[in-house]
Prior knowledge:
The protein is mostly helical. It has two domains: 3-58, no CATH class; 87-135. The chain is 74% helix and 0% strand. The chain is built from six helices and no strands. The chain is flat, with a radius of gyration of 32 Å. The two termini are 55 Å apart.
Amino acid sequence: xxxxxxxxxxxxxxxxxxxxxxxxxxxxxxxxxxxxxxxxxxxxxxxxxxxxxxxxxxxxxxxxxxxxxxxxxxxxxxxxxxxxxxxxxxxxxxxxxxxxxxxxxxxxxxxxxxxxxxxxxxxxxxxxxxxxxxx
Length: 135
């Protein structure tokens, strides 16, 4: 086995922490790293990266003190530029829904039945297209 084939075999193990690799693989990896400078350098990079990440993970991150007020201020500014979703006041919308709840329920029922029929039709067409040809 030449060096590039060996390197390809050990590449997935280079980024693993020592406790993530079984003893046999760790021994073979240590032997390979002892003879291959490229894999030794790459393994060292991963080791430094693991150390840096563990240090970063150990620290408590404190958000800036003015984060919440800044977000609220920007949201207030941005809200003025957004087109309102409903041109009808909420009270009026609630009244219209209340007055027409039976019609809304009927329309919802028809929509559910139509969706079920479309699904059944789709399943039938799909089954017909994928069925083996008889002949």
